[in-house]
Design goal:
By secondary structure, the protein is an alpha/beta fold. The chain has 10 helices and 22 strands. It folds into 2 domains: about 90 residues, Roll (Urease, subunit C, domain 1), CATH 2.30.40.10; about 290 residues, TIM Barrel, CATH 3.20.20. Strands 6, 9, 10, 11, 12, 13, 14, 15 and 16 form a 9-stranded parallel beta sheet that branches. Helix 3 packs parallel to helix 4. The protein is globular and about 65 Å long.
Length: about 400
Protein backbone atom coordinates (compact mmCIF):
# COMPACT_ATOMS: atom_id res chain seq x y z
CA UNK A 1 0.00 0.00 0.00
CA UNK A 2 1.40 3.42 -0.94
CA UNK A 3 2.04 5.87 1.92
CA UNK A 4 -0.44 8.65 2.30
CA UNK A 5 -0.43 12.18 3.61
CA UNK A 6 -2.30 12.71 6.89
CA UNK A 7 -5.77 14.24 6.86
CA UNK A 8 -6.00 15.74 10.35
CA UNK A 9 -8.64 18.43 10.92
CA UNK A 10 -7.41 22.04 10.96
CA UNK A 11 -6.96 24.03 14.16
CA UNK A 12 -4.03 22.34 15.87
CA UNK A 13 -0.36 21.81 15.28
CA UNK A 14 0.19 19.00 12.77
CA UNK A 15 3.28 17.23 11.59
CA UNK A 16 4.20 15.44 8.39
CA UNK A 17 7.35 13.38 7.85
CA UNK A 18 9.15 12.70 4.60
CA UNK A 19 11.94 10.43 3.49
CA UNK A 20 13.19 13.57 1.75
CA UNK A 21 12.06 17.03 2.88
CA UNK A 22 13.17 19.95 0.72
CA UNK A 23 13.55 23.30 2.49
CA UNK A 24 14.98 26.39 0.87
CA UNK A 25 18.14 25.00 -0.69
CA UNK A 26 18.55 22.33 1.98
CA UNK A 27 17.66 18.68 2.09
CA UNK A 28 16.52 16.89 5.23
CA UNK A 29 16.73 13.15 4.71
CA UNK A 30 14.54 12.23 6.48
CA UNK A 31 12.81 15.28 7.92
CA UNK A 32 9.70 16.50 9.72
CA UNK A 33 7.61 19.61 9.12
CA UNK A 34 5.17 21.05 11.66
CA UNK A 35 2.55 23.63 10.87
CA UNK A 36 -0.50 25.36 12.32
CA UNK A 37 -2.76 28.25 11.41
CA UNK A 38 -1.56 28.31 7.83
CA UNK A 39 2.11 28.77 8.70
CA UNK A 40 5.06 26.44 8.84
CA UNK A 41 6.31 26.28 12.42
CA UNK A 42 9.40 24.14 12.11
CA UNK A 43 11.39 21.90 9.79
CA UNK A 44 13.90 19.56 11.37
CA UNK A 45 15.84 16.41 10.64
CA UNK A 46 14.62 13.18 12.18
CA UNK A 47 17.15 11.86 14.72
CA UNK A 48 18.95 8.70 13.71
CA UNK A 49 17.41 6.70 16.54
CA UNK A 50 13.90 7.59 15.30
CA UNK A 51 14.53 7.11 11.59
CA UNK A 52 13.31 3.54 11.17
CA UNK A 53 10.06 4.10 13.06
CA UNK A 54 9.42 7.37 11.23
CA UNK A 55 9.93 5.85 7.80
CA UNK A 56 7.57 3.00 8.63
CA UNK A 57 4.84 5.37 9.82
CA UNK A 58 1.75 5.76 7.65
CA UNK A 59 2.13 9.52 8.01
CA UNK A 60 5.52 9.43 6.27
CA UNK A 61 5.64 10.18 2.55
CA UNK A 62 8.62 9.74 0.21
CA UNK A 63 9.08 13.34 -1.00
CA UNK A 64 7.86 16.65 0.44
CA UNK A 65 8.40 19.76 -1.70
CA UNK A 66 6.71 23.14 -1.92
CA UNK A 67 3.57 23.10 -4.04
CA UNK A 68 4.29 24.14 -7.62
CA UNK A 69 3.82 27.75 -8.76
CA UNK A 70 2.75 28.14 -12.41
CA UNK A 71 3.45 31.46 -14.16
CA UNK A 72 1.75 30.73 -17.49
CA UNK A 73 -1.56 28.86 -17.70
CA UNK A 74 -3.95 29.58 -20.57
CA UNK A 75 -6.31 26.75 -19.70
CA UNK A 76 -6.59 23.17 -18.52
CA UNK A 77 -8.98 20.20 -18.63
CA UNK A 78 -11.25 21.74 -21.26
CA UNK A 79 -11.33 25.21 -19.67
CA UNK A 80 -10.11 28.05 -21.90
CA UNK A 81 -9.33 31.19 -19.92
CA UNK A 82 -9.79 33.34 -23.01
CA UNK A 83 -13.55 32.69 -22.76
CA UNK A 84 -14.08 31.25 -19.26
CA UNK A 85 -16.17 32.75 -16.49
CA UNK A 86 -15.20 33.14 -12.84
CA UNK A 87 -16.58 29.75 -11.80
CA UNK A 88 -14.60 28.05 -14.56
CA UNK A 89 -11.50 29.79 -13.26
CA UNK A 90 -12.22 28.17 -9.90
CA UNK A 91 -12.66 24.79 -11.59
CA UNK A 92 -9.34 25.24 -13.36
CA UNK A 93 -7.74 25.97 -9.97
CA UNK A 94 -9.17 22.71 -8.65
CA UNK A 95 -7.73 20.78 -11.59
CA UNK A 96 -4.32 22.36 -11.08
CA UNK A 97 -4.36 21.53 -7.37
CA UNK A 98 -4.77 17.89 -8.29
CA UNK A 99 -1.59 18.27 -10.35
CA UNK A 100 0.45 19.56 -7.42
CA UNK A 101 0.06 23.27 -8.25
CA UNK A 102 -0.45 25.46 -5.19
CA UNK A 103 -0.68 28.82 -6.99
CA UNK A 104 -0.72 30.17 -10.52
CA UNK A 105 -1.07 33.14 -12.85
CA UNK A 106 -4.04 32.85 -15.24
CA UNK A 107 -2.64 33.95 -18.60
CA UNK A 108 -4.45 35.90 -21.30
CA UNK A 109 -3.14 36.15 -24.85
CA UNK A 110 -3.43 38.98 -27.37
CA UNK A 111 -6.92 40.43 -27.76
CA UNK A 112 -8.45 43.90 -28.11
CA UNK A 113 -7.94 46.08 -25.04
CA UNK A 114 -11.69 46.20 -24.17
CA UNK A 115 -11.89 42.41 -24.34
CA UNK A 116 -8.83 42.00 -22.11
CA UNK A 117 -10.26 44.47 -19.61
CA UNK A 118 -13.53 42.56 -19.56
CA UNK A 119 -11.69 39.27 -18.94
CA UNK A 120 -9.65 40.83 -16.12
CA UNK A 121 -12.72 42.32 -14.43
CA UNK A 122 -14.54 38.99 -14.65
CA UNK A 123 -11.71 37.10 -13.00
CA UNK A 124 -10.96 39.84 -10.48
CA UNK A 125 -14.55 39.94 -9.26
CA UNK A 126 -14.67 36.16 -8.89
CA UNK A 127 -11.56 35.76 -6.75
CA UNK A 128 -13.34 36.57 -3.50
CA UNK A 129 -15.30 33.33 -3.82
CA UNK A 130 -12.27 31.10 -4.43
CA UNK A 131 -12.97 27.58 -3.14
CA UNK A 132 -10.68 26.08 -0.47
CA UNK A 133 -9.60 23.15 -2.63
CA UNK A 134 -8.32 25.22 -5.57
CA UNK A 135 -4.85 26.46 -6.40
CA UNK A 136 -4.54 30.12 -5.51
CA UNK A 137 -4.57 32.87 -8.12
CA UNK A 138 -1.57 35.10 -7.41
CA UNK A 139 -2.48 37.60 -10.12
CA UNK A 140 -2.54 37.64 -13.89
CA UNK A 141 -0.05 37.26 -16.73
CA UNK A 142 -0.79 39.23 -19.89
CA UNK A 143 0.98 37.66 -22.86
CA UNK A 144 -0.07 40.38 -25.27
CA UNK A 145 -1.02 42.66 -26.88
CA UNK A 146 2.40 44.40 -26.72
CA UNK A 147 4.13 41.79 -28.87
CA UNK A 148 5.93 41.81 -32.22
CA UNK A 149 3.94 40.94 -35.35
CA UNK A 150 7.19 39.42 -36.63
CA UNK A 151 7.03 36.71 -33.93
CA UNK A 152 3.32 36.22 -33.28
CA UNK A 153 3.19 32.47 -32.74
CA UNK A 154 -0.54 31.77 -32.83
CA UNK A 155 -1.43 35.25 -31.57
CA UNK A 156 -3.33 37.47 -34.01
CA UNK A 157 -0.75 40.02 -35.26
CA UNK A 158 -3.51 42.41 -36.34
CA UNK A 159 -4.41 42.91 -32.66
CA UNK A 160 -0.89 43.68 -31.48
CA UNK A 161 -0.18 47.21 -30.28
CA UNK A 162 2.77 49.42 -29.41
CA UNK A 163 2.94 49.79 -25.62
CA UNK A 164 1.61 52.98 -24.05
CA UNK A 165 1.49 53.95 -20.39
CA UNK A 166 -2.19 54.79 -20.65
CA UNK A 167 -3.07 51.37 -22.02
CA UNK A 168 -0.90 49.68 -19.40
CA UNK A 169 -2.65 51.59 -16.62
CA UNK A 170 -6.08 50.85 -18.12
CA UNK A 171 -5.37 47.14 -18.06
CA UNK A 172 -3.98 47.21 -14.53
CA UNK A 173 -7.00 49.19 -13.34
CA UNK A 174 -9.36 46.60 -14.86
CA UNK A 175 -7.40 43.89 -13.04
CA UNK A 176 -7.73 45.72 -9.73
CA UNK A 177 -3.95 45.92 -9.58
CA UNK A 178 -3.72 42.19 -10.14
CA UNK A 179 -1.47 42.00 -13.22
CA UNK A 180 1.78 40.55 -11.88
CA UNK A 181 3.58 39.60 -15.11
CA UNK A 182 3.41 41.15 -18.58
CA UNK A 183 5.24 40.11 -21.74
CA UNK A 184 6.70 42.77 -24.03
CA UNK A 185 8.53 42.82 -27.34
CA UNK A 186 11.18 45.40 -26.38
CA UNK A 187 11.78 46.64 -29.93
CA UNK A 188 8.32 48.23 -30.13
CA UNK A 189 7.93 52.00 -29.82
CA UNK A 190 7.23 52.82 -26.19
CA UNK A 191 8.29 49.41 -24.89
CA UNK A 192 11.29 50.54 -22.84
CA UNK A 193 9.28 53.33 -21.23
CA UNK A 194 6.46 50.93 -20.32
CA UNK A 195 8.89 48.30 -19.03
CA UNK A 196 10.35 50.93 -16.69
CA UNK A 197 6.84 52.08 -15.71
CA UNK A 198 5.86 48.55 -14.67
CA UNK A 199 7.76 48.96 -11.41
CA UNK A 200 5.30 51.63 -10.27
CA UNK A 201 2.35 49.32 -11.06
CA UNK A 202 3.62 46.18 -9.36
CA UNK A 203 4.17 44.33 -12.63
CA UNK A 204 7.18 42.19 -13.51
CA UNK A 205 8.10 42.89 -17.16
CA UNK A 206 8.98 39.90 -19.34
CA UNK A 207 10.56 39.62 -22.78
CA UNK A 208 8.86 37.44 -25.36
CA UNK A 209 7.31 37.20 -28.84
CA UNK A 210 10.12 39.44 -29.99
CA UNK A 211 12.52 39.88 -32.88
CA UNK A 212 14.69 42.31 -30.91
CA UNK A 213 18.46 42.45 -31.13
CA UNK A 214 20.76 41.49 -28.29
CA UNK A 215 21.49 45.16 -27.65
CA UNK A 216 17.83 46.09 -27.45
CA UNK A 217 17.13 43.22 -25.09
CA UNK A 218 19.96 44.36 -22.83
CA UNK A 219 18.41 47.83 -22.80
CA UNK A 220 15.10 46.28 -21.78
CA UNK A 221 16.79 44.38 -18.95
CA UNK A 222 18.43 47.62 -17.82
CA UNK A 223 14.94 49.18 -17.86
CA UNK A 224 13.58 46.45 -15.57
CA UNK A 225 12.73 43.30 -17.57
CA UNK A 226 13.29 40.28 -15.33
CA UNK A 227 11.70 37.29 -17.08
CA UNK A 228 11.84 35.58 -20.46
CA UNK A 229 8.54 34.09 -21.61
CA UNK A 230 9.05 30.55 -23.02
CA UNK A 231 12.70 31.14 -23.83
CA UNK A 232 13.66 30.03 -27.33
CA UNK A 233 10.11 30.17 -28.69
CA UNK A 234 8.65 33.10 -30.64
CA UNK A 235 12.09 34.73 -30.78
CA UNK A 236 15.16 34.50 -33.03
CA UNK A 237 17.65 31.70 -32.42
CA UNK A 238 21.02 32.32 -30.84
CA UNK A 239 23.43 33.64 -33.50
CA UNK A 240 27.13 34.34 -33.40
CA UNK A 241 26.83 37.92 -34.67
CA UNK A 242 23.66 38.78 -32.78
CA UNK A 243 22.91 36.56 -29.77
CA UNK A 244 19.43 38.11 -29.67
CA UNK A 245 16.93 37.58 -26.84
CA UNK A 246 18.19 34.09 -26.06
CA UNK A 247 21.76 35.26 -25.61
CA UNK A 248 20.79 38.35 -23.62
CA UNK A 249 18.58 36.39 -21.23
CA UNK A 250 21.00 33.50 -20.78
CA UNK A 251 23.86 35.89 -20.06
CA UNK A 252 22.20 38.27 -17.62
CA UNK A 253 22.06 37.12 -13.98
CA UNK A 254 19.03 39.33 -13.30
CA UNK A 255 16.77 37.43 -15.70
CA UNK A 256 14.79 34.33 -14.80
CA UNK A 257 13.91 32.30 -17.88
CA UNK A 258 10.66 30.44 -18.40
CA UNK A 259 10.99 26.97 -19.92
CA UNK A 260 8.29 24.67 -21.27
CA UNK A 261 9.88 21.29 -20.58
CA UNK A 262 7.64 19.21 -22.85
CA UNK A 263 10.64 18.28 -25.06
CA UNK A 264 8.83 19.91 -28.01
CA UNK A 265 9.16 23.63 -27.28
CA UNK A 266 12.73 22.81 -26.33
CA UNK A 267 14.46 19.46 -26.70
CA UNK A 268 16.65 17.83 -24.06
CA UNK A 269 19.80 19.45 -25.44
CA UNK A 270 18.27 22.90 -25.17
CA UNK A 271 17.18 22.23 -21.58
CA UNK A 272 20.73 21.15 -20.72
CA UNK A 273 22.19 24.27 -22.35
CA UNK A 274 19.89 26.56 -20.36
CA UNK A 275 20.56 24.59 -17.17
CA UNK A 276 24.33 25.04 -17.55
CA UNK A 277 23.98 28.73 -18.36
CA UNK A 278 21.42 29.76 -15.72
CA UNK A 279 21.76 27.20 -12.94
CA UNK A 280 19.03 26.41 -10.42
CA UNK A 281 18.20 29.99 -9.36
CA UNK A 282 17.19 31.57 -12.65
CA UNK A 283 14.89 29.00 -14.27
CA UNK A 284 11.13 28.75 -13.74
CA UNK A 285 9.34 25.85 -15.38
CA UNK A 286 6.01 26.74 -16.96
CA UNK A 287 3.53 24.71 -18.96
CA UNK A 288 1.91 27.34 -21.21
CA UNK A 289 -0.98 24.89 -20.84
CA UNK A 290 -4.15 25.32 -22.88
CA UNK A 291 -7.59 23.73 -22.58
CA UNK A 292 -6.27 20.52 -24.15
CA UNK A 293 -3.99 19.82 -21.19
CA UNK A 294 -5.12 16.92 -19.05
CA UNK A 295 -7.47 15.60 -21.76
CA UNK A 296 -7.22 12.95 -24.49
CA UNK A 297 -6.18 13.83 -28.04
CA UNK A 298 -8.72 15.90 -29.92
CA UNK A 299 -9.99 19.27 -31.07
CA UNK A 300 -9.94 22.23 -28.69
CA UNK A 301 -9.94 26.04 -28.67
CA UNK A 302 -7.55 28.76 -27.60
CA UNK A 303 -9.78 31.80 -27.65
CA UNK A 304 -11.23 31.88 -31.15
CA UNK A 305 -8.50 29.65 -32.55
CA UNK A 306 -9.12 25.99 -33.33
CA UNK A 307 -6.27 23.76 -32.17
CA UNK A 308 -5.63 20.06 -32.04
CA UNK A 309 -3.86 18.04 -29.38
CA UNK A 310 -2.02 14.98 -30.66
CA UNK A 311 0.41 12.91 -28.59
CA UNK A 312 0.69 15.73 -26.08
CA UNK A 313 1.49 18.41 -28.68
CA UNK A 314 -0.97 21.22 -29.43
CA UNK A 315 -0.92 22.91 -32.84
CA UNK A 316 -3.19 25.13 -34.90
CA UNK A 317 -4.37 24.22 -38.40
CA UNK A 318 -1.17 25.59 -39.91
CA UNK A 319 0.97 23.36 -37.70
CA UNK A 320 2.21 26.09 -35.37
CA UNK A 321 2.64 25.27 -31.69
CA UNK A 322 -0.31 26.64 -29.72
CA UNK A 323 0.65 26.34 -26.07
CA UNK A 324 1.03 22.86 -24.65
CA UNK A 325 -0.81 19.93 -23.12
CA UNK A 326 1.96 19.47 -20.57
CA UNK A 327 1.05 18.45 -17.04
CA UNK A 328 3.16 20.43 -14.55
CA UNK A 329 4.82 17.51 -12.76
CA UNK A 330 5.72 15.88 -16.06
CA UNK A 331 7.64 19.02 -16.95
CA UNK A 332 9.64 18.58 -13.75
CA UNK A 333 10.31 14.94 -14.60
CA UNK A 334 11.37 15.79 -18.16
CA UNK A 335 13.72 18.47 -16.89
CA UNK A 336 15.24 16.17 -14.28
CA UNK A 337 15.86 13.42 -16.82
CA UNK A 338 17.32 15.81 -19.40
CA UNK A 339 19.64 17.69 -17.04
CA UNK A 340 20.25 15.47 -14.03
CA UNK A 341 18.88 18.21 -11.75
CA UNK A 342 18.21 16.88 -8.26
CA UNK A 343 15.34 17.53 -5.84
CA UNK A 344 16.85 20.73 -4.40
CA UNK A 345 16.99 22.25 -7.88
CA UNK A 346 13.55 20.92 -8.81
CA UNK A 347 12.00 22.63 -5.80
CA UNK A 348 13.56 25.89 -6.92
CA UNK A 349 12.60 25.72 -10.58
CA UNK A 350 9.12 24.42 -9.73
CA UNK A 351 8.21 26.91 -7.01
CA UNK A 352 10.87 28.99 -5.24
CA UNK A 353 12.13 30.95 -8.24
CA UNK A 354 8.62 31.85 -9.38
CA UNK A 355 7.74 33.11 -5.90
CA UNK A 356 10.90 35.19 -5.71
CA UNK A 357 10.33 36.61 -9.20
CA UNK A 358 6.90 37.85 -8.09
CA UNK A 359 8.29 39.32 -4.86
CA UNK A 360 6.65 36.64 -2.73
CA UNK A 361 9.75 34.78 -1.57
CA UNK A 362 9.20 35.82 2.06
CA UNK A 363 5.68 34.43 1.96
CA UNK A 364 5.65 31.23 -0.08
CA UNK A 365 7.50 28.97 -2.49
CA UNK A 366 9.70 27.18 0.06
CA UNK A 367 9.26 24.95 3.10
CA UNK A 368 10.72 27.17 5.80
CA UNK A 369 9.43 28.37 9.20
CA UNK A 370 7.14 31.38 9.00
CA UNK A 371 6.16 30.87 5.36
CA UNK A 372 2.60 30.23 4.27
CA UNK A 373 3.95 27.95 1.59
CA UNK A 374 1.88 24.94 0.62
CA UNK A 375 3.46 21.53 0.36
CA UNK A 376 3.14 18.69 -2.10
CA UNK A 377 3.72 15.08 -1.09
CA UNK A 378 5.05 12.93 -3.92
CA UNK A 379 5.31 9.17 -4.24
CA UNK A 380 7.91 9.27 -7.01
CA UNK A 381 9.47 12.52 -8.07
CA UNK A 382 12.38 11.21 -10.09
CA UNK A 383 10.66 8.71 -12.40
CA UNK A 384 9.10 9.50 -15.81
CA UNK A 385 5.57 9.59 -14.34
CA UNK A 386 5.75 11.38 -10.96
CA UNK A 387 2.74 10.59 -8.78
CA UNK A 388 1.20 13.13 -6.43
CA UNK A 389 -0.04 11.73 -3.13
CA UNK A 390 -1.53 14.96 -1.81
CA UNK A 391 -1.29 18.70 -2.12
CA UNK A 392 -1.77 20.11 1.34
CA UNK A 393 -2.90 23.70 1.09
CA UNK A 394 -1.70 24.80 4.50
CA UNK A 395 -3.88 27.88 4.71
CA UNK A 396 -6.87 26.19 3.07
CA UNK A 397 -7.85 22.75 4.41
CA UNK A 398 -8.75 20.07 3.43
CA UNK A 399 -5.93 18.51 1.38
CA UNK A 400 -6.45 17.54 -2.23
CA UNK A 401 -5.64 13.94 -3.07
CA UNK A 402 -4.17 13.14 -6.48
Amino acid sequence: MAPRAPTDPPGETKTIAGRYLIGRDRLLAPGRLSYAGGRILETRPIPEEETLAALRSESCVPWILPGLIELQVNGFAGIDLQTAGAEELHDLGRHLAREGVAAFLPTLITAPIPALCDRLRTFRDGLADRPPDAAEVLGFHLEGPFLSPEKPGVHDPSLMLDPERGLLEELQDAAGGGIRLMTFAPELDGALDCIAHCATLGIVPALGHTAASYTRCKEAIDAGARFATHLGNAMPPLKARDPGPVGACLEDPLVTVGLIADLVHGDAGFLRTVWKAKGPRRIALTTDAVAAAGLPNGEHHLGGLEVRSEAGVVRDREGRLAGSALRPAHGLANFAQATGAGPLALARIGATNAAELLGLGDERGALEPGLRSDLAAWQDLEGPQPRLLALRLLDREPPVSG
